[in-house]
From TrEMBL:
Pfam families (UniProt xref): AA_permease_2 (PF13520)
Protein name (record): Cationic amino acid transporter 4
Protein localization: Membrane
Organism phylogeny: Eukaryota, Metazoa, Chordata, Craniata, Vertebrata
Recorded GO MF terms: amino acid transmembrane transporter activity
GO cellular component, one term: plasma membrane
Entry's transmembrane regions: 39-58, 70-92, 113-137, 171-190, 197-217, 229-255, 267-294, 314-338, 366-385, 391-412, 478-502, 508-528
Its membrane topology: Multi-pass membrane protein
Keywords: Amino-acid transport, Membrane, Transmembrane, Transmembrane helix, Transport
Organism domain of life: Eukaryota
Length: 569
């Protein structure tokens, strides 16, 4: 071997390190962070993360340009798809009550390399998303004062025409980010109180919009004379669904906060379900009253809700809507700064980033260094950079994280439970019970349990018919079926989204590809369902996770569709 080149043994060792998994620790409730968040706190964190400027801008954009009054159908379908992804986060949050969200979930099931990539993907998502929200907040406030701030900046600083830089520096956006970072560094309880206040104001204003909207509703606006309920047809509803899906991005802040929850195994699933239900109801009802107040074709996409009240002669209500938009963007900005440093903290704790980011302040019990560095970087991006090009990649990164979480939960469900070999003293139920006699012990580990198939093995009832699947090593069939299902799901999604014209295929080729990808997808799904899954009675679990993944993975190709939008929360 030439000198200086790594040996085969060292390369093999390096590859093993890339694939090593993070063990599920029995003492998962022990943490240097402060466990102070209740179920209500987590629920409002999720609501604040999802109800952002999207409610005030996205509803009008989709109704005017894509779906018409059928925007409520688009939001309903998007909410269902988001629920399936959220259920995967809920189960992982209950199983692994540590901060890290998609990064940690990938680490415990798929390996270190994938976790590292997903971790940085999530960090960039929070970083760019927070800077974009701060710029939107600044622009919205500036528009309320007739753009005096922008005009002052252009007059005294000038207009830039440099690639990758903004047209002018946004000092207001950078300032609000630094202020929010200082508040978040005061502790999780302070951040939760601020989120409570802004979320409560936002929910009250949303309730006001819904009540006033139904009072001012004109059912004639859905009549055929105005274009009907679905003027763009099914394709418009589908395009609207792809865009509306990103309105529900933000529930992962609950999973990122699970290490600071008092009872994460119970609180995380409940908070995710409640927050998603509240936000879905808000989006559907607001989009309903918006298209009933004024005809969909007369909506202003930039400020649909405020403009609808102006058209009906209630200009004072427009100021209330503007206040709600400001409060909603405040919550999204706070939660981006709250969640991002905790992903850095999780990676630093695992040795995948500088150890200084794992330092927790002894008084506030928050990752102080991570918050300060993250806030300064976000402020720099909001101050100088042109974020429009970067924001286009947020949708791809978000859906990639969702896909990995859904895949990880399937991998974990077909693995042998670590509690069966090394029970945790903190786990409830018979596992932690102290045996008083030999009869007690035999009752807990009797012949029924000893003969039960392990996760990843073929179900006993199907062995007479599918015995050939048992010839492979335990777990390899599941791994192959999962890989084939992922590939066929992506192929099927691309075929449905892009269609014949984009794929440059003849009609028979398009139909053949559609049928083959569907058949392969269904067969791989059946193979997964034929194998034994891991069951734990003391935590929340998603039933039939392959089915959940199969639907929640489908929105991934929508990120590449021309009609997709990156407007989130």
């Amino acid at each position: 071997m030439a000198p200086g080149l790594p040996s085969t043994t060292s390369l093999a060792c390096f590859c093993q390190k890339l694939n090593r998994l993070k063990p599920l620790e029995g003492s998962s409730m022990e943490t240097s962070l402060q466990r102070c968040l209740s179920t209500l706190d987590l629920t409002l964190l999720g609501v604040g993360g999802m109800v952002g400027s999207g409610l005030y801008v996205l509803t009008g954009t989709v109704a005017k340009q894509m779906a018409g009054p059928a925007v409520l159908v688009s939001f309903s379908v998007a909410a269902l798809a988001s629920l399936l992804a959220a259920l995967c986060y809920a189960e992982f949050g209950a199983r692994v009550p540590r901060t890290g969200s998609a990064y940690l979930f990938t680490y415990v099931s798929m390996g270190e390399l994938w976790a590292f990539l997903i971790g940085w993907n999530v960090i960039l998502e929070y970083l760019i998303g927070g800077a974009a929200v701060a710029r939107a907040w600044s622009g919205y406030l500036d528009s309320m004062f007739s753009h005096r701030i922008r005009n002052f900046t252009e007059a005294h600083v000038g207009v830039w025409h440099i690639p990758f830089l903004a047209h002018n520096p946004d000092f207001l956006a950078a300032g609000i980010i630094l202020l929010a970072s200082a508040l978040v560094s005061c502790g999780a309880r302070i951040s939760s109180w601020l989120n409570h206040a802004f979320s409560a104001i936002s929910l009250v204003i949303i309730l006001f919009i819904i009540i006033m909207g139904f009072i001012l509703a004109h059912p004639h606006n859905w009549s055929p004379e105005e274009g009907g309920f679905a003027p763009f047809g099914f394709s418009g509803i589908l395009a609207g669904t792809a865009t509306c899906f990103f309105a529900f991005v933000g529930f992962d802040v609950i999973a990122a906060s699970s290490e600071e929850a008092r009872n994460p195994k119970r609180a995380v699933p409940i908070a995710i379900a409640m927050s998603l239900g509240l936000v879905a109801s808000a989006y559907i009802l607001v989009s309903t009253v918006l298209t009933l107040m004024v005809p969909w074709h007369s909506l202003n996409p930039d400020s649909a809700l405020a403009d609808a009240f102006y058209q009906r002669g209630y200009s004072w209500a427009g100021f209330i809507v503007a206040a709600g938009s400001i409060c909603a963007m405040n919550t999204v900005l706070l939660l981006n700064i709250f969640s991002g440093p905790r992903i850095l903290y999780a990676m630093a704790t695992d040795g995948l980033f500088f150890q200084v980011f794992a330092h927790v302040h002894p008084r506030t019990q928050v990752p102080m260094v991570g918050i300060l560095v993250f806030g300064v970087l976000m402020a720099f991006m909001a101050l100088l950079l042109d974020l429009e090009a970067l924001v286009q990649f947020l949708s791809i990164g978000t859906l990639l994280a969702y896909t990995f979480v859904a895949t990880s939960i399937i991998v974990l469900r077909f693995q042998k439970s670590p509690s069966s070999s090394s029970p945790s003293l903190a786990s409830p139920g018979p596992v932690a019970k102290e045996y008083n006699s030999f009869q007690d012990h035999t009752q807990l580990v009797g012949p029924e349990q000893s003969l039960a198939p392990e996760p990843g093995q073929l179900r006993p009832a199907l062995r007479p018919y599918l015995g050939f699947l048992d010839r492979c090593s335990s777990g390899s069939t599941v791994a192959w079926a999962l890989g084939v299902m992922v590939a066929s799901a992506i192929t099927l999604g691309c075929v449905l989204v892009f269609g014949v014209s984009a794929l440059h295929l003849p009609n028979w080729g398009y139909i053949l590809l559609l049928l083959l990808s569907t058949i392969v997808f269904v067969l791989s799904l059946l193979v997964l369902g034929a194998h034994q899954q891991q069951r734990q009675q003391d935590i929340f679990q998603v039933h039939s996770p392959p089915n959940t993944y199969s639907i929640s993975a489908q929105p991934v190709p929508f990120a590449f569709a021309p009609s997709s939008s990156t407007m989130s929360g």
